[in-house]
Design brief:
Number of helices: 6
Number of strands: 8
Shape: globular
Radius of gyration: 16 Å
Strand content: 25-35%
Length: 175
């Protein structure tokens, strides 16, 4: 019997969805039945799945409020199911901030939701200034300047470590 896995995600620029699709591909390859849902479209329930994974990106230091609301409303169901959470953010481009224990956004997130995922990860996202609206571009450049990151408006860098994403997917398959 195939393991039913649900993946719920929130993305701003599409990188979290890209990561979810890689995780889904690995899990399907391992024989699982996987369904992928945007937080905007999810109408199901956590108990419908044997395992439930949530992935969310950061924008301006925060995860999507709908993800937080979903977790808070479904905390009891999540705790009864094998579950995982991963965060996608540009701070994770720095090795010393690329784990759940050291990533400030992940740590802050856990303090706001009163739920601890059974399995967790942090992945670096993608920086593509040309995709951002003007104000977002300026804000992200300021944040990058403050964190000693690239500020050139033509910068396009994918920081995501795809091997790390695939390792996480294999770990999820084995739990």
């Amino acid at each position: 019997m195939k393991t039913k896995i649900g993946i719920l995600y929130s993305t701003v620029d599409g990188q979290t969805l890209k990561i979810c699709n890689v995780i889904k591909d690995v899990l399907v390859e391992k024989g699982n039945a996987v369904e992928l849902f945007s937080i905007e479209d999810f109408k199901g329930k956590v108990p419908d799945f044997d395992k439930f994974i949530i992935g969310a990106s950061i924008r301006y230091g925060k995860h999507n409020p709908k993800i937080i609301e979903f977790i808070n409303q479904n905390k009891a169901s999540l705790e009864k199911t094998e579950n995982a959470f991963f965060s996608v953010n540009l701070v994770a481009r720095k090795p010393e901030k690329a784990s759940p224990e050291t990533n400030p956004y992940f740590i802050k997130f856990l303090q706001t939701i009163h739920w601890v995922p059974k399995t967790s990860a942090v992945f670096a996202g993608k920086l593509d200034y040309q995709k951002y609206p003007f104000i977002d571009k300026l804000m992200i450049q300021l944040i990058m300047w403050m964190t000693k990151g690239p500020t050139n408006s033509k910068t396009k860098i994918e920081y995501t470590d795809w091997d790390k994403v695939k390792e996480f997917a294999v770990l999820l398959n084995n739990i």
